[in-house]
Amino acid sequence: MSAFAELMAFQRETEALALIAGRLEWDQETVMPPGAAQQRGEESAALAGVIHARRTDPRIGDWLAAAEAPDAAGQRALELIARAHRRNGCIPARLAAEIARVTSLAQGIWAAARAADDVARFLPTLRNVVALKREAGQALAAGGFGADAYDALIDEYEPGMTAARLAAMFGRMRPRLVALREAVLGAERRPKPLEGLFPKEAQLAFARELADAFGYDWARGRLDLAVHPFSSGQGEDVRITTRVVETEPFNCFYSTIHEVGHACYEQGIDAAHRLTPLGQGVSMGVHESQSRIYENQLGRSRAFTGWMWGRMRDIFGPLRAADAAAFWGTVNRVHSGFIRTEADEVHYNLHVMLRFDLERELIGGGLEVEDLEAAWNDRFHRDFGVVVDRPANGMLQDVHWSVGAIGYFPTYSLGNVYAGCLHRALRADLPELDASLAQGDARPATAWLREKVQRTGGLYDPAATIARACGFAPTEEPLLDYLEAKFGEIYGLS
Length: 494
Ligand code: ZN
Prior knowledge:
By secondary structure, the chain is mainly α. It has helices at 3-30, 37-55, 59-66, 72-90, 93-116, 119-142, 149-157, 163-185, 200-213, 249-268, 284-298, 302-316, 324-331, 348-364, 372-384, 410-429, 433-437, 443-452, 462-470, 477-490; strands at 223-225, 231-234, 237-242. It has 20 helices and three strands. Strands 1-3-2 form a three-stranded mixed beta sheet. Helix 8 (163-185) packs parallel to helix 20 (477-490). The longest helix has 28 residues, at 3-30. The model has no long low-confidence stretch (mean pLDDT 96). Bound molecules: zinc ion.
């Protein structure tokens, strides 16, 4: 067997084991009996140990040195394996083990601190996490993965992206978003919130209908309930979850559409890439571009919400909105809340910018963990005009820092920016799309995205994946143009 064939066979088994680990996590968040938590901890740790040993197996270096790829996809697979191998090689085993140990405990400590609104309880742990991730980032930067520690951490989620480029992008986005926010909040027109009670089973039935509308493949997926919705898996088994609040049906519906976007990406990758390094979404930013374009540009469009308005009246009875246009406003209502995950399209990227600046300073050493809460509250007041009332609504709201996912937040905004670019290209290619959306059929959009983006999986770098689909290099402009046009119309701005 050639070195290439041996390496790919070894990699295939590692990918399979990683998928099994993911399915255990899915099980834990959905159907696992509550009494199984401790045993599951051991099961997951045992599997994680096996996967880690395989990913750091010294034979990978030998195979890489000798392997010759038979084609371009094989060459790209070798590059991705070599890249992961070099990254692993930068982190001393002692540091990797310490990060795994600290972050596995930190999530529980963060959850308890958030429930008790007690920042002090979380600070010692957060100090450890930041110090360890800074050390890892510095080691990676020394190995060539970015100009500094924060760059190197971003690179894990969005290969090739840098803090400097993100800062410049945010700098261009900020003035237009702030101006739009002020105009919308000052507008006389005020879309009404939805009111009433929307029974759980009926919400779930409509959530399935929404997944159908976007072309989610049920033969290779399923829908379950989870506290925090997520999607899980690749290829032939890509599952989604949602949640139900009977007074807030949009929570269920748009969580579902968002996760369907992630899931359609994984379901849409060429079967030839399955269980290879190319068989999954290429980056967090590109992944989020799929969930965002499904959720926002398509799912919250005037045409699609027009169809939803009719279906929701069939299912739930009369709604407060007087007509489809008023309902479109209700779905897209802008309000200045504390919580990122509940933010509307106008506010969302401002939440991300706050986190990007703070975590960049934390890793760079310009901000101490002790001063983080004050820095957060200060910045939030300046950006949102509201005083944070309690830590659970402030710096304790997100899980990311506790699990060591520093450098992750900016990929949410990159996803929005990429979605803006894809939407511009999609609309140019499919001028009749609104007619389908108005019938509750978003499958032509999925077919376009599958052909242009989803199919290639990890074959091209993130920015190249978007540029190939759009025919232009990604910028923030299409997103900002889209937001100004849409919210200008909803709020009657001129
Ligand atoms: Zn997402």
